[in-house]
Design brief:
With 343 residues, this protein is of the alpha/beta class. The chain has helices at 22-28, 49-62, 77-88, 106-110, 112-119, 133-146, 161-180, 196-207, 223-241, 268-281, 290-302, 331-335, and strands spanning 18-20, 32-37, 67-73, 92-99, 123-128, 151-154, 187-192, 214-218, 253-255, 311-316. The strands form 2 sheets. Strands 1-2-10-7-8-9 form a 6-stranded mixed β-sheet, with helices on both faces. The protein is globular, with a radius of gyration of 19 Å. The structure holds pyridoxal-5'-phosphate.
Length: 343
């Protein structure tokens, strides 16, 4: 697969590390779990949107845009990374935030990613949950055009075929890394939301005939909806690549049993996963995506769904800045803690 013909800016720190998680593996009693550190992509505390933005921002510059418009939930990691790269490129950035959970506490509405959006100089516009955010972005685009600007609209999560190229690239990077160290990768697991990450990974891994299955752990939609969304985007991404790769429907697999009460609503499993990774590996997950993704992986391991001798790669898609927007969700876990208290 040749990504070389697509315009791309280079600002991500790549390749991201591929590390073993020996303590988590021991805690769970196998399989061997590895972590692909896409939380370390280097842009504004990192995350998976950075790889997508290398292609999206190149496209925006190619269209002479001077103003970026994008949208996400209040604690959107995508909006934070977009605001950061827009600032670096000297572009204006309009961030449209939808309060999907209706959360009102100050950490949620002002800290974490929202604080960083502000720091990067983005113009923030707030919308209630349930707003048609694509229509809202079109309204803002019209406004900017009327003021003489040239807007470029990036869909939520940067998830269109151009953005998904970033994860086709990640798939190839992972195969090279695994090959170099003689690691047999049996499965890739990650949190799936707006679908671009899984669509890109599946397209890349299928395109390379790797045979490696990808499991997306859902954070919002029910399984059927999520798989259809990923499959549709994977097919469009393969079309953009123009390589004739067929993405079979059954190669797109999501498990949406770990969403809990809804998108962005904490679950006990998320709190456990975030706490475990912090204390066993010194790694920060996040409350909305990777915490639930890892909760899914941990639960499925405990239920014996994977062979003991498998090598599983968890793609850490970032999000730790969101922890500061969800401090309250961890209050109980901290209160029952004895480790910090000393002897
Ligand atoms: C956006 C995001 C995801 C989900 O990726 P999609 O491409 O939207 O499916 C996972 N983890 C984190 C931390 C994210 O910010």
């Amino acid at each position: 697969m040749n990504l070389g013909r697509f315009p791309r800016l280079r600002f991500a720190h790549l390749p991201t590390p591929l590390d073993p998680l020996p303590n988590l593996t021991k805690e769970l009693g196998g399989p061997d779990i590895y972590i692909k550190r896409d939380d370390q992509t280097g842009l504004a505390t990192g995350g998976n949107k950075t790889r997508k933005l290398e292609f999206l921002m190149a496209d925006a510059l190619g269209k002479d845009a001077d103003t970026i418009i994008t949208q996400g939930a209040t604690q959107s990691n995508h909006c934070r990374q977009t605001a950061a790269i827009a600032a670096k490129l000297g572009m204006a950035c309009n961030v449209l935030l939808e309060n999907r959970t209706g959360g009102e506490d100050l950490d949620f509405t002002q800290s974490g990613n929202v604080f960083l959006d502000r720091l990067f100089g983005a113009r923030i516009r707030h919308y209630p949950g349930g707003t048609d955010m694509d229509a809202a972005m079109e309204d803002v685009a019209r406004e900017i055009e009327e003021d003489g600007g040239t807007p470029y609209v990036i869909p939520g999560g940067g998830s269109n075929p151009i953005g998904a190229l970033g994860y086709v690239d990640c798939a190839m990077e992972l195969l090279v890394q695994a090959g170099e160290r003689g690691l047999r990768v049996d499965r890739v697991v990650h949190a799936t939301g707006s679908a671009g990450t899984q669509a890109g990974l599946v397209t890349g891994l299928e395109g390379a005939s790797s045979g490696i299955p990808v499991l997306g752990v859902g954070v919002n939609a029910p399984r059927e909806t999520q798989e259809e969304r990923v499959h549709g985007l994977a097919r469009r991404t393969a079309d953009l690549l123009g390589t004739g790769i067929e993405i079979a429907r059954e190669r797109v697999v999501a498990n949406c049993d770990y969403v809990g009460a809804g998108y962005g609503v904490p679950t006990d499993g998320m709190v456990e996963a975030v706490t475990l990774l912090s204390r066993l590996e010194g790694i920060l997950l996040d409350p909305v995506y990777t915490g639930k993704g890892m909760a899914g992986l941990i639960d499925l391991v405990r239920r014996g769904r994977f062979a003991r001798d498998e090598n599983i790669v968890f793609v850490h898609t970032g999000g730790s800045a969101g922890l500061f927007g969800y401090r309250g969700a961890f209050a109980d876990a901290m209160a029952s803690d004895s480790r910090g208290a000393g002897p």
